[in-house]
Design goal:
Strand content: under 5%
Oligomer: single chain
Helix content: over 70%
Largest sheet: none
Radius of gyration: 15 Å
Structural class: mainly alpha
Number of domains: 1
Number of strands: 0
Number of helices: 6
Order of helices and strands: HHHHHH
């Protein structure tokens, strides 16, 4: 099951990375809009929690290979969702702190690299 999850999220990382890289202004606007809403943290939970649960339940792989990134990401997302669900003001405080067009581009490059490593691990090793 881990290999299927690796392949799915390799694609997700590359696609979202490309989006961050090519559309940083749109991401800035999106996060500014989310931060302007009192329920912005709940929106993050609604979309992030299912992904976190899939990763934690079906990909709890603690081996020093690229897929461990997905395991770590799943646990970080789960913790973040719990915090935002019980204390939504935490999202408002941190939503756009330090987020800029440059950081969006760096996040995009990071996502593409992680996705590429996952693809390589799935198909080459």
């Amino acid at each position: 099951m881990e290999n299927i999850v690796d392949k799915i999220f390799a694609f997700v990382f590359v696609l979202v990375g490309l989006s961050h890289l090519l559309q940083p202004a749109a991401w800035l606007d999106f996060f500014a809009w989310l931060k302007s809403k009192t329920y912005g943290g709940f929106i993050v939970v609604i979309y992030t929690l299912p992904i976190a649960i899939v990763l934690v339940v079906f990909h709890n792989e603690w081996v020093l290979r690229p897929p461990v990134i997905l395991t770590l990401a799943g646990w970080v997302m789960l913790v973040k969702c719990v915090i935002y669900a019980v204390y939504p003001a935490a999202f408002t405080r941190t939503a756009t702190k330090g987020f800029s067009a440059r950081s969006s581009v760096l996040a995009g490059i990071t996502g593409i690299v992680i996705g590429t490593l996952l693809f390589a691990d799935c198909f080459l090793f």
